[in-house]
Structure formats: C-alpha cells, structure tokens
Write a structure and sequence with these properties.
Layout lengths: L1 H34 L1 E13 L15 E13 L2 E10 L15 E13 L2 E8 L20 E9 L3 E11 L26 H4 L9 E12 L2 E12 L5 H5 L4 H8 L11 E13 L4 E2 L1
Antiparallel strand pairs: 1-2, 2-3, 3-4, 4-5, 5-6, 6-7, 7-8, 8-9, 9-10, 10-11
C-alpha cells in the first residue's frame, strides 16, 4: 500500500512540475521577445525497452525496460548562455540517489555556462567535450559523450586559433583501488613485514587525484586547418595552474618546473601525448 502511495505522489508531482514549467515557459517566452532574452524549460518522460544479454560473473544484468524523466533549462542573453540538462533514470546502472526515488538515480547530462565575445570564448561546468577534429576515432578526446567537470577557453582568429581546456578526472575520490574496501579481503600482500594490504590501509587506497589538460595550436589557410594538439594527464592533483594559464607547450613546461634546483621547483608528474592534424571543410564535404 505504501508503495502505491509513493508512486501516486510521484505522478502528482510530475504533473504539477509540468504545469508550472509550461506556464513559466509561456510567460518567459513573451518576455524574451520584448527584451532579447531567451528562456526555455523542457520536461519529458520516456520509456526504453532493450534486449538483455548475458553478463559476466558479478556484473549487474541490465533491465529489459526502464523509464527516464528528463528536464532541460536553456537561458540565453546576448553573448551569455546557461544550459542545464539532467535526468532521473531507472536503468539500475548506478545505485539510487535517494530511497524515495524508488530505484532511480539522478544524472547530469550537461550543466554549463559559456560566454562569447568577438573571437574569444569561455565555457565552464559539468559538460561533454569534443575533439578539435570531427572524427569518431579521436586520439585525444573520448568520442563518447561522457560529462565531466571542465573549463575551456578558446581564441579563433582569421589566421591563428588556440584552444585551452581542463577536465577533472578524479578529485577527493571515495573509490578505492583494486575493487575492494575495508570489509573485503585483498587478493595479495604488499607489506614487507607480512601484513595484509588492509593492515597498512584499513580504509583502502583512494583513487589518486588526476586531471587532464588539452591544448590546440592551429592555422587557418583558406579551407584548410593545420594544427598541433597536446594533452597531459597530471597525477597527485586534479588541476595544474601552470598548464592551464600558460600557452607554453606542456611537455616543455614540465621540464622547466620539475627539473633542477630552481626557486619555483614543484612536483609535476604528467603523462604527455602530442600530435599534428590537418583537415579541410567545404560546403558539402569534410576531410581530415
């Protein structure tokens, strides 16, 4: 009986939110026409059916059918934009966010602000990222739309363009390495005195802080673009001010700040990847 009441309450809330947001959209839509502002709120519900395949031992089997409640907020004024896209999902991929959600969890698909002024662009928030080249086989950026906390600045000139992006990978993580926690038995020993792994780390070893920095330097020559891409993953910190604020190639920047007896010497453990690209865009084709 309690379960039925909870479902009925959720349905009532959904209807109320839909009615309220529909009225908000209509009211703000009128105001937008008068003040050059744009505000939209979308709210919808979907159901998904999928084929269930056999999983490996220990893996959670996917649901044959699940529902998704999704809401979008889109605000724009002149050069400023604010966008929020979030979902409440019942596919059991992750644990429920709250007990009253009846097995559903919240997920942020995209939530960011951005500002454009002439040739400059800045964006910050939890969002998805794309590579500078339009290809599903990117070497620098995951082609899957995985949202993460990030900040990006971009300059686009007639001849030269430059992109600088930081992406948070791990920060103050609660997850531990090797897939076990303080109540599980480890499958090997690390201590020289014969103690178990959990003797030395009773709460497990948390994932180390990591962050990714991404630079693009390029030239526009007619329909062609020629450029250099560089990425660096830093360990022990999720953000490197040196890599983000400086336009210096990050591989050489690390040699400057992490080598020799210098007053600005710091621990900079980064893994670097560098490469060149070329592409051509026309009205009816793209080549890279």
């Amino acid at each position: 009986m309690n379960k039925i009441s909870a479902k009925a309450l959720i349905n009532i809330l959904i209807i109320l939110i839909f009615l309220l947001t529909t009225g908000l959209y209509a009211e703000e839509g009128t105001a937008a026409a008068e003040s050059d502002e744009y505000l939209a709120f979308e709210f919808f519900f979907t159901g998904t059916a999928q084929q269930q395949y056999e999983m490996l031992d220990g893996q959670r089997a996917p649901k044959n059918f699940f529902d998704t409640t999704r809401a979008l907020l889109d605000y724009r004024y002149n050069n400023f934009s604010l966008f929020v896209d979030w979902s409440m999902i019942d596919d059991e991929i992750y644990d429920p966010s709250e007990v009253y959600m009846m097995g559903r969890y919240l997920f942020i698909n995209d939530a960011h602000v951005d500002y454009t002024k002439d040739r400059f662009y800045i964006k910050a928030g939890r969002s998805i990222q794309k590579d500078v080249i339009d290809s599903p086989y990117s070497l620098f950026v995951n082609s899957e739309p995985i949202p993460s906390v990030q900040m990006e600045t971009k300059y686009t000139g007639d001849l030269f363009f430059y992109t600088n992006r930081w992406v948070n990978l791990n920060h103050n993580s609660e997850n531990t390495y090797f897939g076990f926690g303080p109540d599980d038995d480890p499958y090997f020993y690390l201590s020289e005195d014969g103690g178990t792994y959990l003797d030395d780390y009773p709460n497990g070893v948390n994932w180390v802080d990591r962050g990714a920095h991404f630079h693009v330097y390029g030239l526009n020559i007619g329909q062609w673009r020629f450029g250099l891409q560089e990425s660096a993953v830093v360990y022990g910190e999720s953000f490197s001010p040196e890599y983000f604020l400086s336009p210096m190639i990050m591989y050489f920047a690390q040699l400057v700040i992490d080598d020799g007896a210098k007053p600005w010497l710091e621990y900079a453990n980064g893994k670097h990847f560098m490469g060149f690209f070329v592409d051509k865009t026309t009205d009816d084709s793209y080549f890279t």
